[in-house]
């Protein structure tokens, strides 16, 4: 059963931090017609529980149900769990930060679970590696964001077992993909440190940012300083 609107309200109250002191949208928008990648449904369609959308629409007029306009969008809608909806907002220029959805607050990360079902940190939605600036600059992620991300998901999982199972499954899918690619999975640990999941053994070890690499548009850009502790 999906978490209630009250649970999402509690999450929103305590999950307010930005990913970084850097405005990541300024970096990716120049490659995306002036819009941040995660703020347009041409690239990323937010998925929310119906109870979460009820909360959002009680607080703001910026959210509506997503209406697909192409085959990819129709596939997203067709694959939705019965408790979920695809949604869209009015865009980055009209963003109300206090009324961002859970998926907006967390992007590009999801909670990573080991094969032993332990929630050990933050992994990213790898389909966006070529477009998302954050994925090529994991050192900019602030510890405060990590702490709030972890607390938000622990509260959510305590009230929504299916959401947890979905993240367990997604973590397993990431291991399969990165094993085929023979690449480590970059992780930000719950402690804010950097870790790597080995592609064959799936052993988790400490890592350096240099091991994570840079992708897509950002391969040749200058590196930025790491986040504040």
What is the count of β-strands?
Answer: 8
* Main sheet properties: 5 strands, antiparallel
CA-based shape: globular
Note the total helix count.
Answer: 7
Low-confidence stretches: none
In short:
By secondary structure, the chain is α+β, with helices and mostly antiparallel strands.
Descriptive report:
By secondary structure, this protein is α+β, with helices and mostly antiparallel strands. It has one domain (5-218). The protein has helices at 5-14, 24-28, 50-59, 71-78, 102-106, 143-159, 161-181; strands at 47-49, 64-65, 84-88, 109-113, 119-124, 185-189, 194-197, 204-206. The strands form two sheets. A five-stranded antiparallel beta sheet has the order 4-5-6-7-8, sandwiched between helices. The longest helix is centred in the C-terminal third of the chain and has 21 residues, at 161-181. The chain starts with a helix and ends in a 23-residue tail after the last strand. The model has no long low-confidence stretch (mean pLDDT 92).
């Amino acid at each position: 059963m999906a978490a209630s609107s009250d649970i999402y309200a509690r999450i929103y109250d305590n999950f307010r931090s930005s990913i970084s002191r850097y405005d990541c949208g300024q970096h990716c928008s120049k490659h995306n017609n002036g819009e941040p990648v995660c703020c347009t449904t041409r690239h990323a369609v937010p998925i929310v529980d119906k109870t979460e959308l009820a909360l959002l629409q009680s607080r703001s007029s910026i959210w509506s149900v997503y209406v697909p306009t192409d085959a990819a969008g129709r596939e997203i809608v067709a694959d939705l769990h019965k408790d979920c909806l695809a949604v869209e907002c009015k865009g980055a220029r009209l963003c109300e930060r206090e009324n961002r959805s859970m998926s907006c607050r967390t992007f590009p990360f999801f909670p990573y679970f080991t094969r032993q079902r332990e929630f050990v940190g933050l992994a990213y939605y790898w389909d966006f590696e070529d477009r998302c600036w954050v994925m090529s600059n994991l050192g900019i992620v602030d510890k405060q964001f990590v702490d709030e991300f972890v607390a938000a998901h622990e509260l959510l999982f305590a009230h929504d077992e299916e959401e947890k199972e979905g993240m367990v499954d997604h973590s397993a899918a990431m291991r399969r993909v990165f094993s085929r690619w023979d690449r480590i999975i970059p992780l930000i640990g719950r402690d804010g440190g950097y870790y790597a999941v080995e592609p064959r053994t799936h052993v988790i070890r400490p890592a350096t940012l240099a091991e994570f690499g840079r992708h897509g548009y950002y391969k040749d850009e200058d590196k930025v300083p790491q986040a504040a502790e």
